[in-house]
Amino acid sequence: MNEQPLLLLEEVHKSYPAPEGSAPIEVLTGVNLAVRAGESLAVVGPSGSGKSTLLALMGALEEPDRGRVLLDGLDLARLPERERAAARSRRVGFVFQLHHLLPQCSVWENVLVPVLALPRAARFAGRGAVENGGSGAGTAEPPERRARRLLERVGLARRLAHRPAELSGGECLRAAVARALINRPALLLADEPTGSLDADTAAELAGLLVELNREEGVSLVVVTHSAMLAERLQRRCRLARGVLEE
């Protein structure tokens, strides 16, 4: 059995320049974390503690000042930007509080957008059907079929042709979840996914994320202020004063 974590942070430091030549603002000061394949983790902490920065580092959207962030043993920060972006598209899915759906595109088209970022040969590969409950080794699910299946799974089967402005906030976030999963990522990162929703809709989305974490076999890391959502995940960590503690 492979015990290597899917995601590994080693002594990660991150700071940002301060105005007028002041000392840099330290956000993360030696963060260590290991997340196994298929695991779910909530990161909580006060506003401004660096939770979103931590998530951006996990997804290779930013680079650490010091330390390493390894995904499947690969230090994405050391890759050229083009290779890093390609690896991010294949291996990481993102869900944000503001769903960032393209307003001019239908739900169907929005979900398929990440597929277009992949090389053509990679669009049918993913992580393989066996890892995702399929029955045939080496078989692959066409992106259009997977998009339809995911949209059905998140309850949007009758909204394929609708644009984001025609959906509720909860429906837009469910579409964003389907979009984040379309390329069969190993890691799903969610930044305050329930923050803009009412209590009932937030509970529904929390349940959906937990179920998809299990069904898709994807590792799930969620930054949240919601105790309800955090308690539904397997592990909980608190980020405060630049340090992450479980």
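The above is record 1. Record 2 follows with the same two-line structure.
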Amino acid sequence: MIARENTTPITASDAVKAGTMPPAPWRDPNIKYSGPTPGPDFTFTATPSPTATPSPVPQVRIDGVRTDRVPTPGQLLFDKTRDIAFMDPLNWSVTILKKTHKLTVYYKGRLFKDYHAVFGRSFEPGTKLWEGDRRTPEGVYTIVEKHPSRRWEWFLTLNYPNDIDRHRYEQLRESGEVPKEDGRPVGVGGRIGIHGTDEPELNSGNINWTTGCISVDDHDIEELKRILPNGTLVIIKP
């Protein structure tokens, strides 16, 4: 979120009238943007058609390459956003599928974009149980912090462990299933998040190498940190 010296709530309408709208977070330098200002102006520009009908397929540049790929429903909806709705974490969500190495972002319930991801290096399936088991958690979490990382470009911290994780861990500890170090059970763990990679070859090869985090390519983590506000819902599935 953007810090303000004045703590009085500012509505989207007030921001538009005052001309203080923040820039849209997701902008590709290779795409020509147009639209009213202030406010996000993420617009795919269609190639002019020599005839009125039929309408041409939008021509856009994605990752620097001109393509006929049609913008996703979420990107088109984002394009129509003319207020600060894109800063509201309730308008964003992330679904992660470990089995298919996929991280999917939704904007206002519509598909925005798919990203490739890899996970914890444990050969045991299932969710994270305790510190050091090298598993990626499964469940419902939120992004609670974003900070730069020398090793991984950016780190988007998740609120692991949540209440369910803690309850599961306590049951395992009481039953004696949690391993011990120096005579004491290891902890439930923490510092789980979404980050970039210093092992791009492993990422591209679908090789899970982290100690429990979700790793995406560096250019993807740069994009994710721009578009996803703190508080965004993240659902991790097997």
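Helices lie at 12-18, 73-79, 163-174, 200-204, 218-227.
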